[in-house]
Protein 1
Amino acid sequence: EVQLVESGGGLVQPGGSLRLSCAASGFIFSDRYMDWVRQAPGKGLEWVGRIRNSANSYTTEYAASVKGRFTILRDDSRNSVYLQMSSLKTEDTAVYFCARSTSNWDDMLENWGQGTLVTVSS
Amino acid sequence: DIQMTQSPSAMSASVGDRVTITCRASQAIDNYLTWFQQKPGKVPKRLIYAASSLQSGVPSRFSGGGSGTEFTLTISSLQPEDFATYYCLQHHSYPLTFGGGTKVEIK
């Protein structure tokens, strides 16, 4: 069974940093692209970014709203993906989900974790 | 960026109704479109990928269609468990972008 479990959310002050983790199991993690998606309270879904697999040099893509502030990393030996967030703003308050995708352009975001809440507030 | 416009943003329907939700892309995206269902407090669930392929385990009353710039999600006979918010996602080019969502409520 595919499982994705996020952790690391919490309350952080504006301008602060936080690192989210997503632990994966039940599939060959190293083959997959991994995405982060967020949802502000009462709002819709927003794609945050992606990290590709080793075959694609672990390259990354980001939404404009987080580019330069957020970094996606992965550790295939730990079956984990991370979202390093810095210079946090109040508008980054959201539930953050990790999701698994493939390298096929027509097969994205098949499975999601339960999400972890990040609150940016003073 | 490609903008995804969903319509309607909300709707009321009765059990047994046929429901159609539309998603329009600001430019052609071939068939690189996915539909998700999200119930309150729950994780989004993939229903349809590649515009018209039914995700394994999803009831056959759900279907997707379209290509290019206009896409539809159809529920042939609405069931009580289908009351939820539905989102489309384009993955033709970066950044990936979601539609604003369609909330399907009980009439």
Note: The two ends of chain A are 40 Å apart (CA to CA).
Protein 2
Amino acid sequence: KAGVTQTPRYLIKTRGQQVTLSCSPISGHRSVSWYQQTPGQGLQFLFEYFSETQRNKGNFPGRFSGRQFSNSRSEMNVSTLELGDSALYLCASSGGTSGPPWETQYFGPGTRLLVL
Amino acid sequence: AQKITQTQPGMFVQEKEAVTLDCTYDTSDPSYGLFWYKQPSSGEMIFLIYQGSYDQQNATEGRYSLNFQKARKSANLVISASQLGDSAMYFCAMKGGSEKLVFGKGTKLTVNP
């Protein structure tokens, strides 16, 4: 089975712009979660989508949004970029069943976003 | 709220030796899962091992084992026979009733030849 794929892998934007990141989950997985990783804050949960609906949400401002399509692919959008949005954005997929037992999430390679 | 603490920012080990990476957690959930991931410099998070809070046996996956001590709320990762390719960041994470995966700050492991 192919793993989780993310595009693009690298991105450079300027403050005020917006950006869209894409994530294709493992075939058959219906849940996609997004995480932001920075040196200062570590790994932080952004949101989770399951069956085209946002099922869970972290503590990020409304500039961060996402969606999921009927084929389970997901996109994440960040509007009005700020310097602090520079980070590695990781998406992870899983089957989507609620625990216990708690499902393993499988991660993609990430998108490195640099905001200048 | 759930919290993961990894107190070792960096660890060094000689090739072929065993190493233990510490992880303690805090949660009020009666049921939870604990995970370890490896993140090489390339950035991808690689799943290593899972332990459910009600599992009677400690989890093992090849050279990885999880030393789970529920009363002490610890879930340490043991890597046996370290290899140069084991050099990476290692993250402990947990998931409980909130269904959110919460990560620790990580431990950077360096394997010396």
Note: The CA atoms of residues 92 and 106 of chain A lie 5 Å apart.
Protein 3
Amino acid sequence: KQEVTQIPAALSVPEGENLVLNCSFTDSAIYNLQWFRQDPGKGLTSLLLIQSSQREQTSGRLNASLDKSSGRSTLYIAASQPGDSATYLCAVFSGGSNYKLTFGKGTLLTVNP
Amino acid sequence: EPEVTQTPSHQVTQMGQEVILRCVPISNHLYFYWYRQILGQKVEFLVSFYNNEISEKSEIFDDQFSVERPDGSNFTLKIRSTKLEDSAMYFCASRHQGAAQPQHFGDGTRLSIL
């Protein structure tokens, strides 16, 4: 059974700092990995999708890497801003013939002005 | 950009009542999902749906739950007799064909059981 773990559970940084969020998964047989952002009481906004054959994806100040064999992914946020404050969720798409997303519990990021 | 829409945004229901949560997936998507998130916990998979039938369901998705695609656009989740522990945020998602395609999520329905 796929398990996804995210560390740290919470992170507080001053504005402008670069930061890294970590995600690990137990079963390396994944098709892709998605990073999402969730604001309090809101839905899930997809940030980046990395296919199993890729090593990284970039979108603006965000860079996600994937090491499928070791079951790890990182989300790098450059020059953090107060508007980046949210919960960041990692999810892997796996499951053999019936694919589904398995989520981590998320990292609650607070960027202080 | 097309998006997944869910209604209502918030549903309050008495325990034991039936509730139907509605979703309109992105129009050319073929795979549909329901997930739920109990307050403070992980987003959990409930069920996947393809070609007018359930592809997979989790252990959470017991006989009280059902899904339906009654027409070409709507995808519904019904809970027959709600329990207090069904209180959660319910998310609908859809994706295009191909395992490489991302899932697109709606904004969710917050279900509160009294």
Note: Residues 34 and 92 of chain B are 5 Å apart (CA to CA).
Protein 4
Amino acid sequence: DAMVIQNPRYQVTQFGKPVTLSCSQTLNHNVMYWYQQKSSQAPKLLFHYYDKDFNNEADTPDNFQSRRPNTSFCFLDIRSPGLGDAAMYLCATSRLRSNPGQGSSFYNEQFFGPGTRLTVL
Amino acid sequence: AQKITQTQPGMFVQEKEAVTLDCTYDTSDQSYGLFWYKQPSSGEMIFLIYQGSYDEQNATEGRYSLNFQKARKSANLVISASQLGDSAMYFCAAAINDMRFGAGTRLTVKP
């Protein structure tokens, strides 16, 4: 089955120790997203890739970086995790949709992975 | 940037009854997509229903329907015949240049 896979499902790291979360997809979608979701809050978009074109949200801290080496994989690097970075990290994929005759496009529905829950000690 | 508002932090509904979850959005763009997602306690985000800004008909998917009122910029989710398994967080989202989520509504279905 086509799907979005995130590894690991649970990650424990120490304060200040770099950590990398991974996401892979078999849907062949051209857009991949990383979200941070803290307890009882909405997912917050960190950044997304349209193909290799990287789009960073203005309020995403510099501590968060991302890599997309190919269509299938995307990585989230947290360079120096703080206690406030403990959260669920969700990866999602989608395809760009064009509105016929309207000359515009926007993103189609997103398919989410199961998430990685990050604990910072 | 677009803003998504869900004014109901929590909702209760009796099993087998219908419930409406509210969502309003704020954008000056004419072309966009509106989505509803369900997030059970297990954490996965499940896509429920989609409405395009140029779609004239309200979207329906099984027991889910979207009451789209473009002039009011509202996209309310209607769940008919609620089931116990519908208890979850529900997020409204709008996609233009990126995807923005509302704060969510926690729905509890009572037996």
Note: The interface with chain A takes residues 29-33, 35, 37, 43-47, 50, 52, 54, 91, 95-104 of chain B (CB under 8 Å).
